[in-house]
Fold these 4 entries.
Entry 1:
Amino acid sequence: MRTASPLRFALLVAPLVIAGSRGAAQTSPLPHDSRGAKPQGWLVGGSIGLPVTDGIASPDLFTLAVHWTQLRPGRLGADFALGTMPRVITAGAAVGLATGGVALPLQLSPGVLLLPSAGVTLAGVAAVEGSGGTTGLNAGLSAVIFGAGSVGVRSGVTWHRVGDTGASTLLWELGLVRIPRPR
């Protein structure tokens, strides 16, 4: 059984760390003018996800999640999510998924954010027969599209490697987020 390669994880995280370490003065690629006010605060939203393992989608194991991403365009911020798999719950088991890490929000235009992220994944299940849990790594890329209002659409994919099975899972997600006011 293979474990997650530290080198592979380092290669995925390195661009985030390098970009975020260029100093607190770093900002997004947008020009500094009165129209260039950037939203700052927390992106908070929910999503539905489709897991794909070894190229096989599992729609019956869809996920529901809540996300929190610290939004400071051009600077590293915290990134968290809590989720579950409703189908597993209906089968009589409680399942929980959590991720924690960092994201580097990049404002590509006044209504488009790109969110590369990386961190750790925690997964646990409890049933009458017993319970268990595992940890792993994740790396993802999401895009948020929003207009003048306070609601946007978030779409993305996250790579997860949990436990020592050697299998990776891609989680494709689509959801809505609350956009903080520009500052």
Entry 2:
Amino acid sequence: MKKNYTMDELEVQHNFITELYDLSEQLVSTVESPFTRDPEGQMAIVEPLINDISDATDILAEEYMLIASQQRGKSNTSANKGKVEGALRKIFNALNDYNDRVKDTAKKAHGAFANIADPIVAKIQRRIEEVVVIFLEFINLSLASILHKQQLDAIKARDPRIAMMVHQHAMNMQQ
């Protein structure tokens, strides 16, 4: 762990994690928008992503509460690294599956296809990357078990903090 967090900082981070629920709700609202031509078809594309985000966010929020309790000296129980990695992996896999469903739909439409939910999905992608950074502050996560190599390389390119944390973890493992 890099620093001691205040209760306010811990609460802000917890809220940041739970905002994944809000982003899921935005997906639902987008699909149910009057501007959507095929709400049922859109829901079929986004519903698995929504469900996986909700399930994984439940776990991430719960595990973060254990971290926060431990930080405040109120608990001797630490977060379960395996649960955190599994929840993160679930979201990243759900994002990949979503992209695959969008590509399949585009192929069936015989042309360019932009999904109405894509901007919200991009926000979720960035949010979950930030959540990874939050957990990396407390737990030595195995990003290789969470992400595919291409995903990890892309995240390291977008977020120098993750690149630095991965590098530091590799250096610690060599010592």
Entry 3:
Amino acid sequence: MTPFMLSVQELLDGAPAPQAATVPSTPGPIPAATDTQVIVRSLAEQLVSEANAVLRGHGDLIRLDDEVGPGGLTFTLGYRDRSARVQTAMSGRTALVRLVLDGRAEDEPRQLSSQGELQALVLSLIVD
């Protein structure tokens, strides 16, 4: 088992979930934001696969849904009634990343403080 899979198992055994650290989101160049979105999305797919390998014997699995459309790239992680949406919205020459948890966006856009915080985000979805 990978270290992340062990973390998922620890949650199922009663360990507290970490909270993902976020920072205010500021507009940035589209190429950099797009690159980051693709990297984070790829990591999300890996983490969902690992988590679901552990969760498979416990019922519900984490969902990973993509949305691509004019002006944005988005993926949503869902588990039971909880969700985390990572959106990169493009306008003109800039892009803005926004993290939306359980359908509620902050007044000021926020994003994960680092790619490493994605693990904490996935784990936080699993805990009731």
Entry 4:
Amino acid sequence: MDTFFNSVYYYLRSLYSQELDNYLYSTIPGYLHLGIILLVSTVIVCVVFYYMLAPVRNQTRWWFIYAGINAIINIGSGLYYTVTPLINNRIDPNEEWSYLDCFGFCIANVIVSFVFFVVTSLLIKWGSTAKFVPFKKF
């Protein structure tokens, strides 16, 4: 599972610095932790949308709102894993990254979370009342 998330974030690592990539890859298993948080939050948000709170009208609009909620959750987890070591001075000063790199990693995390949200939506939509969201036929 660790190699899966390493390869997923590998394609988006140009959004943040090499120091942050090294920290998340080797110092802590950050990609694994963030990937598990991403998967669990995506599944929970999709299940809540499709099976518990799926509105009858304007379902596509609500689907995008829930995708935004999922993105906000993943921004928070990404900020926690990247900004906390900077604030607590737990890293070597010559291997520090900037707050802009933290923002870039959050953008990468939002992109990955949206892809997983779409895939999870396509997997679980047929058994719910919102069968035609986000696409009419697939």
